[in-house]
């Protein structure tokens, strides 16, 4: 294991009053004259083009370095920091954030996890000079079922010969490097695929065919393409890790990418909430502002709460990659499952509030419908809901049997937003979780201290009851229902478990950040609201009196809106 | 069973031809291309004109072929199933004209009927840039002058605002505040001095991209006095009554969208392999399909009852239309979202990779149905305003038995629509909901006779308890005119679920003996579709932890696949569709 | 029908007897496949029975819990038959002592 070196989160609360450097480079998104503002991104989306001014900002900032581990000369340290660095990009344009940003993590993480020194150095170099990369893992015919994917790599002398196609691949036509998942054995099963790092500029180009661009309803600007290798030779040294290790590598590396991507997309939700809050404050109806009406207030306060829940879960899971690496196979899937779902539900409610303007592509709120279209694309890309649930399901019975109500709580470091973390070590990530579910145990831990609280007590009680019921249900699951081919009940249990984890994350974040500079986050109103939203999702009755926290949450929302601060856990000034 | 409105729709669908044949004007390929280019579906609308659809927008008494609003709903659904842009662009004439059927005099209505049958486009101008839901805040002014009105001001977000020939305009006829300060003018743009008005550019939209959603600005436009529809202060009242019809009719758009999405989903599930099995054989995917089918059937049941209710329960339409306009689009939205999970990346791809990118188009397009003609909040608000009456009538069990029977018995002829029975105050509450306890009792009796499974009874009784509890909570709600608390909206939403349950129960009870043939028979026998629908609703009203025993959805898969494979409408009353089978 | 229905791992953890390990493992595999244990042969690849990648990972967790070991989760990928796993386990268990 690598020795712990300090991360960067120490300074997290140091410059709350100045915008994040990348945010500052982009400038005020609402300024129509800003070449990298919302209007420009909207226009680029219409053209199906990544906004050149946006790419310049990202290149000028050297975003590529964020995906390169420090040891290789980059800035990748803590994954929670990485997620936060990406938020200003997602706040403006998820297509740029994914298609010109996070995609580079998706294609490189497998190389950081399994590549040799030479491969790592080469790929680091590509990214450090703002090169673009592609991760050609899936095929249209087999989707997430990588075990059945068909593109082949055959050893011929000291060469590997690639043949076959990959479709719906981000960046492929313009990438310098591509990580390709290829079949290296005809045997069925999980040892038949390997990863190949392809230097696209140096392969014989006549052995490559690029497919026409795939277009999507959202993130219209991303460059989704496809590639067909026609007996295309690459050096045998292009093999990443051992032959047959691809699935294992992918299962480890994608924990990092899922967590980071989930944390990054909170920037997009920030924009949605900010846009509709502005509308509600400006729009007049029945001689008052919409924001004066009780229902819109409830919707806005609820959305703010959901954003905080999402950030608690995403940030905790990002930090868990460093602190509880043996658990993150299931945590990362839970975050990538639940956060997009919460976000979608909450954005749908916001759309109702925005009314007709949620349907207009122009005008002062036009950015809303763009993020609305982008969201499902981001949710599906890189592990959609079903796939994440299917990752969680087989792991539940063992957690139920060996861990829940037995494992001690996670260490405070997991939750302390400004505490530096040990270095990320891909080798310590496990492809299935060990029975040490510290995050779920935090619920039981914090609950003990809150029993006397008239609101948090009963709310935690409901969650503990849920965990107990989950435990019974998961122990009871028929064998078939523990597989990805499980019956719906398993999928429902996976959802409930993800909700319990989110509640635990909220409790942990609240408990261990009592020195947060924002008194609102030290106080309990948001926590009551958050647990209330989560228990409602579990179908539990509302706790009497819990709704009384809404004015405090709404006031904090308006305060952050007016002082132009982020709605996330950090609450930094925005540009 | 043959049911006239469905037969009419089937015949119309037949005349439109196979949408997968690119040589047909109303084809999937053309709709996708038009959407891509944001082009108005000119040729397709023309095709609908040629096939005589406009005459169906005109009641027979005014020279058209519209015999019942139930027919209109099934026809519009058949159009919407192919494409929502077209349905909304063409069908707007119908919605725009309703104010005249509701509030106009005989000559006006006959004249309009002749215009529409001849292809005249009518739009409906209510909304202004600064005022949407709050009709009473409208600023467009119609000042009385010697020979009519002088109209000024802007209406914005008007469907066919540019292309329309006539616009049915809500305008202020008096300066003081209040509901009697507005009138409706049927403005003929063709006869206006061109200098006195201009149309606004079409907005660029999230969905229905090809539609003409624009606006019109008047500057001292001279409109003849004969354009006035109804009495001078009667505008708001006529609009509110018209909305009772149009909100009910909007359900057809949602049904069409659900038909389309579910067909795409079923088709994909039957062909796509994953993990070595077809998606349809993966339990979770199967469930996603079955739930969506259950939702579609429930939405259909509600829509059938509501559209028949226009004739049979006219005095209660204020409740029925609000409940339907909230419930159906909302349910379909959920179903489409669920189907998107099944479709995976194919729910997002535009272009030729998969089925012309139809899924993402349906999903984008359908969002509008919940927004226009009174958005979900407005409809729930309208129910909240009626809470005291609804609570009282439920407690008393008031039911218009004849009306309810006619609304729910498909073999019964519908009474003529009588506009004089429209009222802004549903004095009798909502017979459909108020008949819920009796309906559940009937089901219980059938269980005793072994005609339906006990599981259905349990669910139905659960629903009745939930309804009792809900109506008690509604009774306890303190009335508030504007500052309605969020909880009241939640109660109203639940009320719509009770309404749906009650409508489904009545529809099944009254027709179970007559609909027994074909693939639909399996749905009706032993109450299968009803049980599925009620199970969904009970889950919404009283969420419970999953227990893995809800096999009613498993039983739905077979009829779904059977209807799909037979090329039939996925429906309670299926008919043969023109879409080619694969 | 001898398909085990319950999620109780075999109890006798002291067993290093290869037959006992093999029986226990076959039992677990039968459990996941929902097939009678008599249908299964210890020298046939698990993947041929349809024990796909993720079940195989789950199996590894069961073995860890049963024998108190820490294993590579990909154990069943690399030792694709029951016999192969038994051989490995025997070595590990005796090595542990
Ligand atoms: C594609 C399209 C086509 C259209 N076609 C037409 C047309 O042909 N003719 C026409 O006249 N109009 C048309 N409209 C306009 C549409 O009907 C209105 O926009 C809609 O009725 C509501 O208005 P609004 O969205 O502007 O919201 P507003 O009325 O301004 O309301 C703002 C928000 O306040 C909330 N709200 C409203 N009432 C309450 C309440 N009581 N309590 C709490 N919250 C409340 C709502 O959620 C709403 O989101 C169209 C709109 C679109 C997008
Ligand atoms: C915007 C975007 C960008 C992308 N970029 C890349 C990229 O750069 N590189 C790359 O390699 N790929 C990329 N992809 C592809 C992506 O990662 C997936 O391969 C693709 O989305 C898989 O989805 P699918 O719908 O094709 O198939 P699948 O994931 O195979 O899913 C098909 C269906 O099976 C269902 N299903 C799956 N598991 C189960 C189960 N256990 N039980 C029941 N049903 C199940 C799913 O719900 C779905 O209905 C991208 C996709 C998108 C949309």
From TrEMBL, chain A:
Its cofactor is FAD. The keyword Cell membrane does not apply. Keywords: FAD, Flavoprotein, Oxidoreductase. It holds the Pfam family Acyl-CoA_dh_M. Residues 1-30 are annotated as: Disordered. Residues 249-382 form the Acyl-CoA dehydrogenase/oxidase C-terminal domain. GO terms for cellular component: plasma membrane. Residues 136-232 form the Acyl-CoA oxidase/dehydrogenase middle domain. GO terms for molecular function: acyl-CoA dehydrogenase activity. The keyword Oxidoreductase applies. It comes from the Bacteria. InterPro entries: Acyl-CoA_Oxase/DH_mid-dom, Acyl-CoA_Oxase/DH_mid-dom_sf, AcylCo_DH-like_C, AcylCo_DH/oxidase_C, AcylCoA_DH/oxidase_NM_dom_sf. Belongs to the acyl-CoA dehydrogenase family. PANTHER family: ACYL-COA DEHYDROGENASE (PTHR43884), ACYL-COA DEHYDROGENASE FADE4-RELATED (PTHR43884:SF19). This is Acyl-CoA dehydrogenase.
From TrEMBL, chain B:
CDD domains: ACAD. The keyword Oxidoreductase applies. Residues 31-117 form the Acyl-CoA dehydrogenase/oxidase N-terminal domain. Signal peptide: none annotated. The keyword Flavoprotein applies. SUPFAM superfamilies: Acyl-CoA dehydrogenase C-terminal domain-like, Acyl-CoA dehydrogenase NM domain-like. GO terms for cellular component: plasma membrane. Residues 125-220 form the Acyl-CoA oxidase/dehydrogenase middle domain. Residues 233-380 form the Acyl-CoA dehydrogenase/oxidase C-terminal domain. GO terms for molecular function: acyl-CoA dehydrogenase activity; flavin adenine dinucleotide binding. Its cofactor is FAD. Belongs to the acyl-CoA dehydrogenase family. This is Acyl-CoA dehydrogenase family protein. It comes from Solihabitans fulvus.
Automatic annotation (TrEMBL), chain C:
Residues 16-93 form the Carrier domain. Signal peptide: none annotated. One of its GO terms (molecular function) is phosphopantetheine binding. Pfam families: PP-binding. Keywords: Phosphopantetheine, Phosphoprotein. This is Acyl carrier protein.
